[in-house]
Design goal:
With about 525 residues, the chain is of the alpha+beta class. It folds into four domains: about 240 residues, 2-Layer Sandwich (Nucleotidyltransferase, domain 5); about 90 residues, ATPase, nucleotide binding domain (Nucleotidyltransferase, domain 5), CATH 3.30.420; about 30 residues, no CATH class; about 110 residues, Ribosomal protein S6/Translation elongation factor EF1B (Alpha-Beta Plaits), CATH 3.30.70.60. It contains 17 helices and 17 strands. The strands form four sheets. The chain has a five-stranded mixed beta sheet, sandwiched between helices. Strands 11-10-9-12-13 form a five-stranded mixed beta sheet, with helices on both faces. A hairpin with a 3-residue loop joins strand 1 and strand 2. Helix 3 runs parallel beside helix 6. The two termini are about 85 Å apart.
Length: about 525
């Protein structure tokens, strides 16, 4: 996991070292905006080993024997490093095709978690080297992203790079001897692709072909969305005029088109290197495509653009240039970047979830601590209630509930009290002088529940004594109207819940007719339910 994080660490300068059997290039590369520029470089020729007739290099071991002989390359590089000042000890190595292999192939789309097994298995069809003796890495991408016309076919492209374990181990040991910190080992086509993409003013869509011409070789690379999908190196030897006919650039372009199912094609060819006017015409004649000249010398700060220098520049830029096909042949991370990225994402998600849970626990603990502190403070400020002392919480709750019920009853009894004094006062104010009250009753039971309706009963009886029945009746009728008009009486006994009736009648009192006396009596009955 830490290796994945460190791999993404950005540097502002780095040494790019290109290695081949014939020579090496050391370039001091620094970041300049979004691209790379050479601060200093040196081309270091290696002493040539005398070989038997017809023997060139040993591709079965990818020339590991050469690198294991430190006198052949470490000593010359050490002398070159000692002859000048370099800005950094960080280094990235770019290997020529003599030490590594780069292949591109198309296969069915595979989920990232299965690519570690499926991609090496598929690559054995295209890379004829024993994998148990090799370090490899790969970059997989969806063809649908690069070529939308291929989206329905559900395929992905794979750039696969491989080198011998002995090569990688010899390079790690050699860098330690040189006092340099090795950050990456990659193949030269990948390094050149990185600097080529960085120097383009805008990323062109579809495949592009780059033919770079050295004095005795031609390096042909075809890119798709900045990724190398084909690389060929043609050696002219001493007879360029004969070998020019063997570039077969058109055949390489047709091969790439067939690899993508015939749905893509190269629109133009870019040439760079030496004798460009001559090569431009030859390439245009062979491919029948537009040909443009690419001269990166001013952009990278060098007067020459040899293939090895471009590869060293791209390798040094691996420390700070964004490039999708990020592959490392040191063997430490061995092609599982997809799996490591997935695992890193899962660990990050799990860590975030744990962090959130810890934060929530901390918040809850803080709340509990504050409540406990507040409870302690309240206990210190409040005397212990004697009725609750020595009782359990359940007993205290029962006792408190009983007190609450009694309080509710008293609140009901004492609320909405209908005072009698104002009613009696209103009654006294309207009783005429010749009207006598003989009986009076007022009942208003207490309410012990809000559901019980209020009930008031007022009864009163008496008589009028003015001397004549006519005057008595008139006086009592006036008394009845005055009584009903009193506000306290009207509000209390108002319909529909209340009513108030007064009956008046004339009666004779006495047993003998001579002594009989007429008396006008009344009965008042008011009620509210």
């Amino acid at each position: 996991m830490l290796g994945l994080i460190n791999k993404k660490a950005k540097l502002k300068n780095c040494l790019g070292i290109f290695l081949s059997v014939e020579y090496g290039v050391i370039a001091d590369i620094r970041q300049e905006g979004k691209t790379a520029r050479i601060a200093r470089f040196v081309r270091v020729p290696f002493p040539q080993i005398k070989r038997s007739s017809g023997e060139t290099t040993k591709m079965s071991t990818m020339n590991a024997e050469f690198l294991e002989n430190e006198a052949a390359w470490v000593d010359p590089l050490k002398k070159a490093l000692a002859d000048g000042e370099w800005s950094t000890k960080n280094a990235c190595i770019s290997l020529s095709s003599q030490f590594s292999v780069v292949r591109h192939f198309v296969m069915p789309m595979v989920a990232p978690r299965f690519r570690k097994q499926s991609i090496p298995f598929e690559s054995k069809k295209y890379v004829p080297f024993p994998f148990e003796e090799s370090f490899y890495d790969y970059y997989a991408y969806s063809i649908a992203d690069a070529q939308p016309a291929q989206a329905s076919k559900g395929r992905m492209g794979v750039v696969f790079a491989l080198t011998n374990k002995r090569v990688s181990q010899a390079l790690v040991t050699g860098m330690e001897k040189l006092g340099l910190e090795l950050h990456k080992i990659e193949s030269a086509p990948v390094s050149v692709s990185r600097i080529y993409s960085a120097l383009q003013p805008e990323q062109k869509k579809g495949p592009q072909a780059l033919a770079h011409f050295n004095p005795s070789t031609a390096c042909i690379t075809i890119y798709n969305e900045g990724v190398p999908v084909l690389f060929r190196e043609v050696n002219f030897g001493d007879s360029q005029s004969t070998e020019r006919r063997r570039l077969d650039l058109k055949g390489s372009i047709d091969f790439v088109s067939k690899q993508f199912g015939g749905g893509v094609s190269v629109g133009e060819v870019t040439v760079s290197g030496e004798n460009l006017e001559l090569w431009k015409n030859l390439v245009a004649e062979e491919t029948k495509l537009p040909v443009v000249i690419w001269d990166p010398s001013k952009a990278i700060g060098a007067q020459e653009t040899e293939w090895g220098l471009l590869a060293a520049t791209g390798a040094g830029g691996c420390a700070f240039l964004d490039y999708p096909a990020d592959m490392d042949l040191r063997g430490a991370e061995k092609g599982d970047l997809d799996e490591k990225t997935t695992m890193f994402t899962l660990w990050a998600a799990a860590g975030s979830l744990v962090g959130i849970l810890l934060l929530l626990c901390a918040v809850q603990y803080t709340k509990l601590f504050l409540l406990k502190r507040e409870l302690t403070a309240q206990k210190n400020k409040t005397d212990i209630i004697q009725e609750f002392e020595g009782k359990t919480p359940e007993e205290i709750m029962v006792q408190a509930e009983a007190v609450k019920n009694r309080s509710s009853i008293f609140t009901t009894v004492l609320s909405n009290v209908d005072y009698l004094t104002p009613k009696l006062e209103a009654l006294v104010n309207v009783i005429p002088e010749n009207v006598w009250i003989k009986a009076f009753s007022l009942k208003s039971p207490l309410k012990f529940s809000a559901q019980i309706p209020r009930q008031i009963d007022l009864t009163m009886s008496g008589s009028a004594q003015t001397g004549t029945a006519t005057k008595d009746i008139a006086l009592l009728n006036q008394f009845r109207e005055d009584f009903k008009s009193q506000k306290n009486i009207a509000d209390t006994f108002a319909p529909p819940n209340g009513k108030c009736d007064i009956s008046i009648q004339t009666m004779e009192t006495g047993k003998a007719s001579r002594s009989a006396v007429q008396e006008t009596v009344f009965n008042l009955a008011c009620t509210v339910k």
